[in-house]
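Cross-check.
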Amino acid sequence: MAQEPGATDPAEQGHTRPDPATPEHTAPDPDLRPAPVELSDLAALKALAQPRRQWMLQHLTVHGPATSATLARALGLNTGATSYHLRELSRYGFVEETGAAGHGRERWWRAVPGDRRFPSRSRQSPEMRLVMDELNHHAYAADLELFEQLQRDAADEPWADAFPYSRGTIRLTLPELREFFEEYIALLNRYKRPEAGTPADARTVLTRFLAFPAQAASADAPASGSTPGSAPDTADDGRETETP
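Predicted model, tokenized:
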């Protein structure tokens, strides 16, 4: 699981987003990608796994900078709680103060972008696995809740159709799966751009990637693709996805 992979503003790295319509820019330059940072500190992972902090990070990511009072109103918490959680998130580098001046002593906070990754399952200690399981459980549940809420609240306008969804299967070796994931990260980076270069009609689009190996087949299991009663995978617009 990666947190906001490739979210670093390209302007901070001295380059701009290439034009996707230009053939010579179809392959992103690896040197321009933000370097991945592994989160292996157990205390940082525990801080991140707290459900309320997950909510706050999601709000800051989707809606931009906010004060503790703004977060409290949006999430139904008190300002004392949000202030405490913001300090803990800041302690481990997940949020930071923007430096913007507010009314009185208001402090504005923003989510810190970056390509954050977690240790592979095989390298996690039993205690870290428990923390990661809790973190993933809350993250997946929050994503599903947000997806369903946005679908329910979608207005009758062009963005009401902006829910592409696909289910499919591919057969890969473990190295190929790692390569597949890195190509996905590169695709995200290709479409990242600074705020100054973003069209006025653009909207924040939340992207999530989830892949996991199917259960190993037993000797008497049916051949791949011949499961009785199986149905073709489809996208939300009714198109079938390729299932090798």
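The longest strand covers residues 108-111. The radius of gyration is 20 Å. Passed to J.P. for a second look.
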